[in-house]
């Protein structure tokens, strides 16, 4: 028996160049999707209290953010509107208005920065008075098929305005197929669908609801359409269906507590998988850093790298611009 270890795994870790040489995972700004909140007015920046460092921007200033994203090497921005209270209705019909905040923002961005990808959320919650992602019946139940019809209309006005990736986040059954059909029929054959196939009814969405102004509005919860955090097999069925209906890529949401789902989807379906590092995850890192419990930059980069290691093609994160700055050195 030798008195030395047969293998020394520390050998390849012993210098910077060697660690870089054997690194299995790469994270770059091109893997990041930057979510931006749009609000009304001109020259308006509204900081969001529950998301320190994140603001809502009026359309003119969103364009500046798109230029910034491009300069940082971020390929895609995701848009969410803070619809004025007076335009919210029970049926969320403002979602179908070709001149709503979302559509105006898409057009302004595509005019100014044509080669940045624009991803748009499809769901009615920023437009409804009750804060749900769809239409509700007298009992408060979110009805599936009529909601889907509205979502198709919403996706079409977004595509007509220039959206590159339609991202249904509503969890209605059958909506990916319905949206795909409508896009094809309207000639938007290269508009992609990134389906939030596995979206969980999560406690991590709090600050987002604040950001899109639906915090005080939401009646009840979203458990009859978003998934139970206890389930993983069911996520595979959701993904399988959405792929069959024409999804080009899959989103898992939230991110960090669901890395197992990301890995399972990647191994089983071999389709591009994305993680949404949601508002509560962002707030958690910011709070930890502010409390001195960890180094902010290191926490941000480690969590983003973990998503890549788990199998993600990319990550939608409120830390996108900050992380891109760090990655660009
Ligand atoms: C709505 C939507 C939500 C988020 C993105 N799209 C909220 C919800 O489902 O209630 C949350 C994102 C975040 O927390 O960052 N369809």
Automatic annotation (TrEMBL):
Pathway field: Porphyrin-containing compound metabolism; protoporphyrin-IX biosynthesis; coproporphyrinogen-III from 5-aminolevulinate: step 1/4
What molecular function does GO assign, one term? zinc ion binding
User: What InterPro entries is this protein classified in?
Assistant: ALAD, ALAD_AS, Aldolase_TIM
Q: One matching Pfam family, short form?
A: ALAD
Identify the keywords attached in UniProt to this record, alphabetized. Heme biosynthesis, Lyase, Magnesium, Metal-binding, Porphyrin biosynthesis
* Catalysed reactions, as listed in the record: 2 5-aminolevulinate = porphobilinogen + 2 H2O + H(+)
Any single Gene Ontology cellular-component annotation: cytosol
Query: What PROSITE patterns does the record tag this protein with?
Result: D_ALA_DEHYDRATASE (PS00169)
| Residues annotated to bind Mg(2+) | 238
Broad class of enzyme this protein falls into: lyase
The EC number(s) attached to this protein equal 4.2.1.24
Tell me, which GO biological process terms does this entry list?
protoporphyrinogen IX biosynthetic process
Keyword Transcription attached: no
Positions of the catalytic residues: 199, 253
Quaternary structure and partners: Homooctamer.
Q: Which family does it belong to?
A: Belongs to the ALAD family.
Q: Could you identify this protein by its name?
A: Delta-aminolevulinic acid dehydratase
Which species expresses this protein natively? Sphingomonas paeninsulae
* Gene coding for it: hemB
